[in-house]
Amino acid sequence: MTTFERIKELAKMRGYSLSALNDKAGLGTNSIYHWKTKSPSTDSLSKVADVLNVSVDYLLGNTEDETEISKNKPIVDLNKDDSILTFDGTPIPDEDKELIRRLLRGK
């Protein structure tokens, strides 16, 4: 399966037309359709992967696990104080940081 075919199939499963996916990813007009014959840029492929909530590796066919986390995406450590820095330019108090951590963990 080509990258274009995989994207087309995923878009359909997610309820997007290729045109809508193209727009949601912020790509130029009909960019995805051009991928039938041309290779997409890394940046464009990354944008499409983000919209479809899969890794670039999955789109490229390098893995069959669509939920695999791309090594390029940062992972936030909620236990580190520098993970939650500021809100609206104002430092977040320690007690609020703990509340935010609990909310993000779902506890």
TrEMBL record:
Domain HTH cro/C1-type stretches:
7-59
- Give the Pfam families listed for this entry: HTH_3
Q: Which GO terms describe its molecular function?
A: DNA binding
Do you know which Gene3D superfamilies this protein is assigned to? lambda repressor-like DNA-binding domains
Checking InterPro entries in the record gives: Cro/C1-type_HTH (IPR001387), Lambda_DNA-bd_dom_sf (IPR010982)
Which SUPFAM superfamilies is this protein grouped with?
lambda repressor-like DNA-binding domains
PROSITE patterns noted in UniProt: HTH_CROC1
Q: What is this protein called?
A: XRE family transcriptional regulator
The lineage is:
Bacteria, Bacillati, Bacillota, Bacilli, Lactobacillales
